[in-house]
Amino acid sequence: MMRNASFTKLLKRTLHNRPPPSSDLDRLREIVLGVGSLDDLESDLNRSGIQVTPSMITQTLESCEADAQSRRLLRFFTWSAKSASPRPADEPFNLAIRAFAAKKDPIALNVLISDFRREGRAMDPETFARAAEALVRCGREGEAVALFKNLEAWVRCPRDRVTLAAIVRALCMKGHARIAEGVVWNHKDRIFIEFCVYESILYGWCVSGNVKEASKVLEQMRSLGVGPKLSSYNSFLSCVCERNVKSNPSALAPDASDIMRKMQSFGVAPSVVSFNILLSCLGRVRRVKEACRVLLSMQGMGCDPDWYSYYLVVRVLFLTGRFGRGNKLVEEVVAEGLVLEPRFFHYLIGVLIGKERVGCALDMLERMKKCCTREYYGPAYDLLIPKLCRGGDFEKGRQLWDEAVAMGVVLQCSSDVLDPSKTEVFKRTRKHEEEPVPEEPVEESMEGPRRIKKDLIV
Q1: Which PANTHER family match (predicted)?
Q2: Any residues with CB less than 8 A from the CB of 239 and at least 6 apart, and which?
């Protein structure tokens, strides 16, 4: 008898967990993704006669999350939560909150959180983290903090180091470091403050551009005996550079050098990301000489430039009319055998087209063919063909089109651009020729990559 009872229980559990017939799931998906009012949606669900189970709710949410309108998905979930047999556990509700958090729908989140409170359900920490992040992104940081303060009372979720780190991270991602500090201060006697919380607060001050407060957090982290990591220093470096771009461009390189020296004194070596942050800001304010010097100094500090480092320097050379030096640097980098991503050439072709240097852009395309495989040629041809045709050179545009088709390159631009009767030709009203910048002599004592970069300093 005991064996028969055990077998009966196992059979019932198996039948309950068994996936529903695909026709029922397809029908539910068709109704949720359909059109009409929300009342029509609920009427269709009632007329369908489908006996909804918790597993069907979960599968329908997962299959419709990306395509369904938020309100239709919410109406389906509230209907199915009442109609399902047996009564759904907490898992479908947590899944629903994560789905609406991904859709950034604060109203739906508030409805489901109210259901949690009314029915006494338990929210898991991961779901809370998603909900808090979505609320903050929607500009409802006050609601996110209120949810954290009432986690245990509202949704039976513990307020511990995990959920504290989650609310602080959500707030600081949008620069609400002051609010995050208040939350930490109110809970510092009850909850152990992990190191990642200080990292989030530092990032939050950097997002808001407050160098003074970010510097205080850095000192506080050092005083705790655990030094900041490379990511924290890079966030602070970016904050300082952004401030100097706006107010004091001449201080970009000196301030960045001071930060990197402090990093090294605390045993943290600057990475290529650190230098790229500085190079990007120098390029934005057209500090060509300093950008070239930074590129030269990277190898001296044991940090080899990557493709993006070279792109940033070549870009500022092109933007300031130093096309000869920019092309020379590209040729030398290709000759050295550095692995260059297709984006390196795509971006530079775009810069050259913007500077009306179509001939240089075509030369860049030829260099790209030597370094990249043909499946990456498409964006380059999509830039060049319309530019040539709108400039009146339909013959060259047709030549590039035929060349791309012959290689099997997938083009996004329309073939109509090749038709002179459909493409408007823009004639220049003035000459866009850049005056050549005098070239400085190359120092014969410099060899290899250092010789290349030394010659670029202007």
Answers
A1: PENTATRICOPEPTIDE REPEAT-CONTAINING PROTEIN 3, MITOCHONDRIAL
A2: 205, 206, 209, 210, 211, 214
Residues 266, 124: Cα–Cα separation, whole Å: 38
Over the stretch 387-435, which tens digit does the pLDDT of each residue have? 999 999 999 999 999 999 999 999 999 999 999 998 888 876 655 444 4
pLDDT value at residue 429 = 60
**What is d(CA 163, CA 148) in angstroms, rounded to the nearest whole number?**
8
Short-list 120, 154, 121, CA closest to 132: 154
Residues 61 and 95: their CA atoms lie apart, in Å, by 8
The C-alpha atoms of residue 163 and residue 151 are separated, in whole angstroms, by 9
Q: How far apart are CA 253 and CA 97, in angstroms?
A: 46
Q: What is the pLDDT of residue 248?
A: 95
Instruction: Tell me if residue 138 falls in helix, strand or coil.
Output: coil
Q: Lowest-pLDDT range, 21-25, 123-127, 384-388?
A: 21-25
Cα dihedral 331, 335, 336, 341, rounded to 10, equals 70
Full-model pTM: 0.84
383: alpha, beta or left? (left if phi > 0; alpha if psi -120 to 50): alpha
User: What integer pLDDT is reported at residue 301 of this predicted model?
Assistant: 82
Distance separating alpha carbons of residues 141 and 57, to the nearest angstrom = 30
With beta carbons less than 8 A apart as the criterion, state whether 204 and 212 touch.
no
Q: Virtual CA dihedral for 343, 344, 350, 356, nearest 10 degrees? A: -160
Return the structure tokens found at 254. Answer: 């000196």
Structure tokens at 370: 């030597």
* Tokens coding 195: 């190191």
